[in-house]
């Protein structure tokens, strides 16, 4: 286990990784795991300045900011990594996958537990934000660009701003290994389709009450252009 398992996990999940040596030498997602182990060790021994120094050096080298206090499980796959932020009280379970641009952050100046907790086998899509002391259950998939402000139960898929649960049953696959983010519902488009269908039903109902061409039919009303009456006179 340990860092060797982390490197093998990255090799197994990333089709662009040709071997473990390439991961160890070239992957910032692996480098930041190494430096975080050091920073977290210093943090737990109250060497807070040194811990932050290590984490900030790692941030400048990798573009990934992980607070030394964050707790990270085994086999975390950080893909690309640029722009990732994990807050101080963040907790991440085993075998999770997190894409670039993800924030696991707080929402205010509260002390104590104020950052998210992720279960095992969780996938967080690119650019997603998980804010506050929310709990993300095992086998959860969060779509790219989503904003999570509430707890998400295990085996669910959530997308949107704010995120909504759109699917339950991820237990049939492991989102952290599957990595598929293309088959997720488009919530804004669904809302537009529902609104269009509702307007169509209203139009049909109104056509029955006011036949086309009648003066009372509001659907046939065309507002007069400014000054049109004056020209007709």
UniProtKB/TrEMBL annotation:
Reactions that this protein is recorded to catalyse: L-serine + acetyl-CoA = O-acetyl-L-serine + CoA
Subcellular location(s) per record: Cytoplasm
Broadest EC class assigned to this enzyme: transferase
Main location as per UniProt: cytoplasm
Compositional bias segments (type: Basic and acidic residues): 222-233
Record key words, sorted: Acyltransferase, Amino-acid biosynthesis, Cysteine biosynthesis, Cytoplasm, Repeat, Transferase
GO BP of this protein: cysteine biosynthetic process from serine
Pfam families per record: Hexapep
Gene3D superfamilies: Hexapeptide repeat proteins, serine acetyltransferase, domain 1
Designated name of the protein: Serine acetyltransferase
Native source species: Candidatus Gemmiger avicola
């Amino acid at each position: 286990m340990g860092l060797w398992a982390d490197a093998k996990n990255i090799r197994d999940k990333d089709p662009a990784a040709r071997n473990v040596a390439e991961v160890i030498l070239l992957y910032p997602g692996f480098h930041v795991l190494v430096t975080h182990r050091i920073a977290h060790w210093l943090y737990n021994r109250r060497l807070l300045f040194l811990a932050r120094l290590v984490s900030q050096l790692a941030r400048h080298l990798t573009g990934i900011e992980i607070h030394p206090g964050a707790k990270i499980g085994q086999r975390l796959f950080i893909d690309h990594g640029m722009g990732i932020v994990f807050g101080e009280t963040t907790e991440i379970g085993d075998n999770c996958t997190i894409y670039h641009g993800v924030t696991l952050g707080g929402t205010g100046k509260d002390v104590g537990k104020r950052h998210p907790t992720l279960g095992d086998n969780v996938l967080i899509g690119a650019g997603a934000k998980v804010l506050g002391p929310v709990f993300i259950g095992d086998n959860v998939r969060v779509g790219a660009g989503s904003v999570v402000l509430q707890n998400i139960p295990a085996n669910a898929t959530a997308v949107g701003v704010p995120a909504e649960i759109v699917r339950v049953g991820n237990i049939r696959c492991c989102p952290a290994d599957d990595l598929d983010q293309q088959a997720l519902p488009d919530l804004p488009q669904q809302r537009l389709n529902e609104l269009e269908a509702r307007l169509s039903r209203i139009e049909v109902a109104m056509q029955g009450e006011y036949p086309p061409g009648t003066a009372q039919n509001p659907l046939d009303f065309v507002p007069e252009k400014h000054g049109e009456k004056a020209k007709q006179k």
